[in-house]
Amino acid sequence: MVAPRPGSKMQIQSYKHNGQLHRVWENSLVLKGTESIVIGANDKTQVTESDGRSWVTREPAICYFHAKYWFNIIGMLRTDGIYYYCNISSPFVFDEEALKYIDYDLDVKVYPDMTYDILDEDEYDDHRLQMNYPRVLDRILHNNLDYLLRWIRQRKGPFSPDFVDQWYERYLTYR
Hints:
There is one protein chain. The protein has helices at about 120-130, 135-155, 165-175; strands spanning about 10-15, 20-35, 35-40, 45-50, 55, 60-65, 70-80, 80-90, 95, 100-110, 115-120. The chain is of the alpha+beta class. The protein has one domain (about 10-175): FomD barrel-like fold, CATH 2.40.380.10. A 7-stranded mixed β-barrel has the order 1-2-3-6-7-8-10. A hairpin with a 4-residue loop joins strand 9 (about 95) and strand 10. The two termini are about 30 Å apart.
């Protein structure tokens, strides 16, 4: 697999299990790009939904993608602290067009005090039935949700102290 080059811009494309394009983020800056990990950053980035509606992100964000784990993590820098939005998703793939992953609806919102809420379980159940997720996929996704929750509780990876701040400092050097 090709890895994105640090300092380059990339598009991020989110799909659904049935192959339908779900959401596109334009012009995220690559801070780290290897075959297994991509760390990107964006601020005031245009996001386009599958129905054509678009909106602009409100704050700087550091995005963490892994080729092994079935989740990705977005750390959003707000005035009252760092909030995380975590998507249960396929591992990413990167080609010359974009970084791509399948969004499986289950999400975890993490607050600055590291408490969290699991979101969209009903949406996951609906799509699991509509798109006929195999039982093995359902197990993989729930096992990775458990793994993600352990990372949160243990302050591991992007949840470790200073992770988002250090990558944001690197992002500022490109501006």
